[in-house]
Write a structure and sequence with these properties.
The chain is mostly helical and about 325 residues long. Helices cover about 65% and strands about 0% of the residues. It folds into two domains: about 140 residues, Serine Threonine Protein Phosphatase 5, Tetratricopeptide repeat (Alpha Horseshoe); about 150 residues, ANTH domain (Methane Monooxygenase Hydroxylase, Chain G, domain 1), CATH 1.20.58.150.
């Protein structure tokens, strides 16, 4: 279906008559047109999040109501609009979404009636789970990982050991939800899913930036940690290596569909000697002995941590 449907026009006219500018903008951003929400409507809604006299609960509820329809196009565009506002709107919106007990309940969504309905419904279910996890991460960590200060004096690089070990698994869970979107390049077939994928691509870069910097900080602290902290840190690091592989696969899809990532990310595999040093140190704390790895080698590896970090650091 192309163009605004009769339902879209009637809904927009109704909101015009009732004087609800927010509802009208949400309606226009989530029409039945198989295309991305229009910039002018997204810009207006971003502006609304910055206005103190605008009810954030009303704005959020209006978006959530649009996901209660049966049309994959409307629901997908409501998710995209919400994601866009999470990224570029006032933090008040994210705070409100994170405070809700439930956000999107679309695990069973299926549009059987429309062209592409079955395929797109799969991605709607995955996308909604990611947005739920994005809000939950904010609720647990009180920070948006895509917006935190980066660099040597950034949040993740200066975080203490205890908080770091609690925070990194939250980042891992959010990144997992994002990577579970899992499209093939031949499934990015319309302007709606393409827009969602671009937003996810941008989030993946920013989340990984925080994740990467946190892991660098953790590795730098590793040899001074208590035994239980070392065990947790080692598992976090092993998970991190696995996520790097999954992220590489996700970025390959972006490359195939023409997204230029040259200015964003350069992934490089960590040297195996680094993992060996971490395992050897934990074994020594447990009174075990792995294959010989001298103390001298252990400390020679510490500069490699910084080098490794710079290799995969994001521009």
């Amino acid at each position: 279906m192309s163009g605004q449907s009769l339902t879209d026009r009637i809904a927009a006219a109704h909101h015009s008559m009732t004087g609800s500018a927010i509802s009208k903008a949400v309606c226009k951003a989530t029409t039945h047109e198989v295309s991305a929400p229009k910039k002018k409507h997204l810009d207006y809604l971003i502006h609304c999040t910055n206005e103190l006299n605008v009810s954030i609960p009303h704005l959020a509820d209006t978006l959530l109501e649009r996901t209660a329809t049966n049309s994959w196009i409307v629901v997908f565009k409501a998710l995209i609009t919400t994601h866009h506002l999470m990224m570029y709107g006032n933090e008040r919106l994210m705070q409100y979404l994170a405070s809700r007990n439930t956000l999107f309940n679309l695990n069973n969504f299926l549009d059987k009636a429309a062209l592409q309905g079955y395929n797109m419904s799969t991605f709607i279910r995955r996308y909604s789970r990611y947005l739920n996890e994005k809000a939950m991460s904010y609720r647990l960590a009180a920070v948006d990982f895509t917006k935190m200060k980066r660099g040597a004096d950034g949040v993740m690089r200066t975080m203490n050991t205890e908080k770091l070990i609690k925070t990194l698994p939250i980042i891992q869970t959010q990144l997992d939800a994002l990577l579970d979107f899992q499209p093939n390049s031949n499934e990015l077939t319309n302007g709606v899913i393409n827009t969602a994928f671009m937003l996810l691509f941008k989030d993946s870069i920013r989340i990984f930036a925080a994740y990467n910097e946190g892991v660098i900080n953790m590795l730098e602290k590793y040899f001074d940690m208590k035994k239980n902290q070392c065990k947790e840190a080692l598992e976090i690091y092993k998970t991190f290596l696995n996520r790097m592989t999954k992220l590489s696969e996700f970025l390959k899809v972006a490359e195939r569909v023409g997204i230029d990532q040259g200015d964003y990310l350069d992934l490089a595999q960590a040297p195996t000697s680094l993992l060996e040093a971490l395992e050897q140190h934990l074994a020594s704390l447990d009174g075990r002995k792995l294959k010989d790895l001298s103390t001298g080698t252990q400390y020679l590896l510490l500069p490699q941590i910084s080098t490794y970090g710079s290799i995969i650091a994001l521009v």
